[in-house]
């Protein structure tokens, strides 16, 4: 596995998607690095607009790019907005990767998703199992767009020698998450649901699915730290999984969230709702060999995420 030190100091660094949970965590992490940070809002440049992206890159010429921009959502959003999840994410990946290449970007990191792995791939999920089996149907459009981005980064590396790398985060949570009642991921959905049940005095909280699927959860600021570490030290076509290497059932996880929020009622499961993939645990041995491990425990991370939820909802109400 090749590794070529990349010095971020003094570089112009573009975080694409800085208003999202991942992008915002990267901005927080890069504040302690000596970089000139570049960000753009969707109103300034729509990353799905090829001409706009090319013009911006030609004007700004970022030396390093974290491509964290994406249309994201939970199981319902993925399954309902299938066309948008495929088109938007394909367009973002194609436009930004190509513009980075054309305009002399020195290093780019593309963010995949653990849904790129086959639905029934052996656990824990190794990087080399991508494209070895059928995808989970509920998020197949998103997964295909992400696989295309990974293959594009690989192609520009092999054809042009571009130092483009891809990382594969596990399920993320923390400040800046989306708490939409229908379209959120499981962590944000449960934090909101248990908090609202506590406030209203509800005797029961319904969790979607059977509660048996196992999931791995990574605090988003840990992800940002891993990404900066890899940006500086890693240069190879192979993907790198980023996770904790540990998982928990949704039922157990719901109890952790309930305890953190201070909800003491019953928890029941709506088995008419889809479970999604039975298990999604990443093999993080490649990342460990590269010198990085997650440092935030699930309990500490959920406490911080709940505090962030409280402050974000308070701000929204003001």
Keywords:
single chain; six-stranded parallel β-sheet; alpha/beta; 318 residues; three-stranded mixed β-sheet
Structure description:
Helix content is 42%, strand content 15%. The chain has helices at 21-30, 50-60, 75-80, 82-102, 140-160, 186-200, 220-233, 250-261, 285-289, 298-317, and strands at residues 12-16, 36-38, 64-67, 107-111, 164-169, 171-173, 204-208, 214-215, 217-219, 240-242, 248-249, 266-270, 279-280. It has a 6-stranded parallel beta sheet, sandwiched between helices. Helix 5 links the parallel strand 4 and strand 5. Helix 4 (82-102) runs parallel beside helix 5 (140-160) and helix 6 crosses helix 8. The chain starts with 11 loop residues before the first strand and ends with a helix. The mean pLDDT is 94.
Calculate the terminal CA-CA distance, rounded to whole Å: 51 Å
Give, in spatial order, the strands making up the sheet with the most strands.
2-1-3-4-5-10
Instruction: Tell me the β content.
Output: 15-25%
Helix/strand/pairing category: alpha/beta
Give a quick account of the main beta sheet: strands, pairing sense, barrel closure: 6 strands, parallel
Shape: globular
Count of discrete alpha- or pi-helical segments spanning 4 or more residues: 10
The helix content, as a percent range, equals 40-55%
- Mean pLDDT across the residues is 94
Radius of gyration: 19 Å
The topology string of helices and strands comes to EHEHEHHEHEEHEEEHEEHEEHH
Q: In a nutshell, what does this entry contain?
A:
The chain is α/β, with parallel strands linked by helices and 318 residues long. Helix content is 42%, strand content 15%.
């Amino acid at each position: 596995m090749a590794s070529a030190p990349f010095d971020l100091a003094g570089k112009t660094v573009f975080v694409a998607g800085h208003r999202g949970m991942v992008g915002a965590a990267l901005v927080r992490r890069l504040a302690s690095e000596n970089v000139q940070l570049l960000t753009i809002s969707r109103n300034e440049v729509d990353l799905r607009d090829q001409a706009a992206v090319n013009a911006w890159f030609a004007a700004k010429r970022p030396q390093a790019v974290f491509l964290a921009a994406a249309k994201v959502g939970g199981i319902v959003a993925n399954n309902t907005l299938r066309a948008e999840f495929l088109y938007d994410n394909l367009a973002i990946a194609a436009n930004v990767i190509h513009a980075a290449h054309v305009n002399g970007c020195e290093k780019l990191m593309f963010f995949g998703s653990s849904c790129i792995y086959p639905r029934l791939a052996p656990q824990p999920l190794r990087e080399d199992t991508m494209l070895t089996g059928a995808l989970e149907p509920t998020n197949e459009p998103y997964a295909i767009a992400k696989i295309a981005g990974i293959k594009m980064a690989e192609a520009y590396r092999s054809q042009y020698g571009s130092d483009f790398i891809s990382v594969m985060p596990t399920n993320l949570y923390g400040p800046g998450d989306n708490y939409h009642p229908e379209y959120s991921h499981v962590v944000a959905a449960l934090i909101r649901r248990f908090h609202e049940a506590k406030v209203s005095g509800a005797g029961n909280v319904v969790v979607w699915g059977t509660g048996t699927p196992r999931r791995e959860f990574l605090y988003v600021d840990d992800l940002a730290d891993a990404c900066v570490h890899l940006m500086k030290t890693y240069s190879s076509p192979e993907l790198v999984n980023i996770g904790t290497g540990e998982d928990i059932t949704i039922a157990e996880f719901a109890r952790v969230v309930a305890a953190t929020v201070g909800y003491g009622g019953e928890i029941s499961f709506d088995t008419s709702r889809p479970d999604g993939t039975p298990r999604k645990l990443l093999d993080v041995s490649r990342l460990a060999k590269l010198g990085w491990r997650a440092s935030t425990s699930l309990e500490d991370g959920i406490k911080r995420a709940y505090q962030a939820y409280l402050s974000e909802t308070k701000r929204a109400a003001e």
